[in-house]
Every structure is written in C-alpha cells, then in structure tokens.
Design goal:
2 domains; Thrombin, subunit H; 10 helices; 6-stranded antiparallel barrel; Pdz3 Domain
Length: about 375
C-alpha cells in the first residue's frame, strides 16, 4: 500500500492557537453539550442526506451505524447517542494531559502499569521527565521512552506506583472511510477546572501510516486518543490541518507492532523535514572561490578552528570550487556528522576535522 503523504494531499499541518473551550464543571454538563449538538447535527444530516438515510431503511441496528452508515431513522440516531453517552466516562478517564519541559499535549493510558501513548513531537526525546495530569486532577510523574519520529508515535511511562484506569488498544488495519470515531484531548492546554473534551466525527481516509478524520482538533490535543465506537483506541492525534476539521492521526497498529522498541527507549525515523548539517560560515562575495567572510561565534566552524579568509577546497572527498558547492556539500550531511575539510590558508593547504551541528532557531 502506498504511503500516505499528508503534505502532498492536504498541505502541511500547522499549529493552531485558539481560545480555550468554555470551562465545563462536570462530566454531565460536558456530556449534555456534546449530545445536544450531536443530536442537532445528525438531525440536519438526516434531512440533507436522504440518499444515505434511505440506503437500508428497514435496518435499525447500531451495528449498521458503527460500520459507517448514517442513521436511517430516529431509533438509530438515539442508539448512536446512547452509545456515545455510555462510552464517555470510560474514555475520558483514560485521557490525560502531558507536560514535557515546556511542551504540552495529550495522551492516553493503555495499560494498568501506566504506559501512555502520545505523539513523538510531544514527548520530544527519550528519558526526559514528564508530568501526567489525570482526568480527576491528580498529577503523576513519568518518563518519556521511545519514539518513531517518522510516524510521530511516542511512549511515556508513569513512574509512580499505582493501578491505572486505561483504554484498550483497537485494530486500525480494518478501519474504513466513513466510520464514526471519537476524539478526546485537552484543546488549548490542560485546565484543572475542565475535563478532557470529547468530539466526534468520521474517518475520511485510512492508510497504514496515517488516519484522516473530520474531528475538530486544536493546539493542546496533540498526542490525544482517537476511539472507535467500541471505546478502543484506534489512533493518536498527530497534526492539525489548515482546516481544523481535517486532521491526521497515527494509527494504533504501529504502536503495537513496535512496542518492544518503544518501551526500550529507542528512537528511529525523522520527524518532519530532515535536518541538514550546519557549518556556520558566511560567503565572501568578492571572489568566485569558497572563501569565508565570517565565522559564526560558537559554530562548528568556530570550534574546529576555521577563520575568516580561509578558502575551502574539499569537503570529504568532494571538490569545492564555489561557495554554492560548499552549501550543497554541507546540505547533504546531517548534524553530528564528522567530516574533513581541506582549506587553503596563507598559501598553505591544511586539513581540518569538523563535527557539524544544527542550524540555530531564529529568535522571535
């Protein structure tokens, strides 16, 4: 099966910052709001989507709706509403907020001994201290473990003793477009006066590497769980689309398939665009050679002893005739790569070893 390309098909996910949802003081208040709007939305959908509703008017079972069909009548609508109400307390209890350093996101407890699924970009790196905020307001300490950065899959372990309420892992291999799903998380960040927020929607696209849904997500939801109508975790929120109702989730199967590596704290894959090596020199535009005009203080070039006026002749085995050649050669390498650079300094040829770094982020 071809790998799902979110950037190609739907545009690069962007972070979102919006106002926090109105505070909800109890699960019953939250559930009332959710189900009231669910009822209105589905009623409108039934009127406008007569083709779907009339597909099998004699069948009035929840099983038909769970398979992705629109409710055919009021009985099925009420059955769907009742099912979501039945699942609400259970799935909210297993949903947590996560804080790692300055990063905030969501997660879901999936084992009695406190393993938490989240997004790799929320966890950041292995073996970092984490805080896990439970739905009842308790705060527990944890540690980040492994991550598949290519898929944005991460794992955290609560390190304090306890038996933790948890969700069951589902099967993402059989998910079909049109199936109903439930998304929970902490939009806008953790709020001690508000339970995790429940939203619902449908699967738009299902691939081995990504699920696409129309469940509304915002900043703070990253790492939270996506459930099926059996209350099982089928995905983890990863990226927010340009349209808040087109969002990407990591399927749960890759978590299960790589559980041993995640639990050991392994890291693999790349998160987002690949990082490029950085040397830390600027061009002398008065010549066609790769002559250095300035060496950035504290850069890999500075630490290796490169100086203003040095002319770079080779990077590794590759000849460099211009500053553009130099940029291309460094751009093919990664941070932490160690290379030998040949230079001409005061008429003498020298070899200098350099360990490349990452380009510093611009301050805002």
């Amino acid at each position: 099966m071809a790998r799902f390309d979110y950037d190609k098909d739907y545009g690069r996910g962007i972070p979102a910052a919006i106002e926090k949802d109105e505070k909800q003081r109890s699960s019953m208040q939250h559930l009332a709001i959710t189900t009231r709007w669910m009822f209105v939305a589905l009623a409108i959908f039934l009127v406008s989507s007569t083709g779907l509703a009339q597909e099998d008017p004699t069948t009035t079972s929840l099983a038909r709706v769970k398979n992705g069909k629109a409710p055919a009548d009021l009985e099925e609508l009420r059955a769907l509403q009742a099912k979501i109400k039945e699942l609400t307390d259970e799935i909210l209890t297993s949903t947590v907020a996560v804080q790692v350093g300055r990063a905030n996101g969501s997660g879901v407890i999936v084992s009695e001994d406190g393993y938490v699924l989240t997004a790799a970009h929320v966890a950041g790196a292995p073996h970092r201290s984490a805080l896990v905020f439970l739905s009842d307001g308790r705060i527990k300490r944890g540690i980040t473990l492994g991550m598949n950065q290519e898929l944005d899959a991460g794992l955290i372990k609560i390190t304090e003793p306890g038996d933790w309420s948890h969700a069951e892992l589902g099967d993402s291999s059989n998910i079909k477009p049109g199936q109903w799903c439930l998304a929970t998380g902490h939009p806008g960040g953790y709020d001690r006066d508000r339970l995790p927020v429940l939203r619902w929607g449908r699967i738009l696209k299902a691939e081995k590497s990504a699920l696409l849904t129309d469940c509304t997500l915002v900043g703070g939801d990253s790492g939270g769980p996506l459930f099926d109508l059996d209350g099982k975790v089928i995905g983890i929120h990863s990226r927010i689309g340009k349209n808040l109702t087109i969002n990407v989730h990591v399927p749960v199967d890759p978590f299960r398939d790589s559980w041993t590596r995640l639990a050991k704290g392994e890291v693999w894959g790349l998160l987002g665009p690949p990082q490029r090596g950085w040397l830390g020199v600027t061009e002398d535009s008065t010549t066609d050679e790769a002559r250095i005009a300035r060496v950035v203080e504290g850069s890999p070039a500075d630490l290796a002893g490169l100086r203003s006026g040095d002319v770079i002749l080779r990077v590794g085995e590759n000849e460099v005739k211009s500053f553009n050649d130099l940029q291309n050669e460094i751009g093919r390498l990664l941070p932490e790569d160690e290379i030998v650079i040949q230079i001409r300094r005061d008429g003498e040829i020298e070899q200098i070893s350099v360990k490349l770094g990452s380009r510093p982020r611009r301050r805002t």
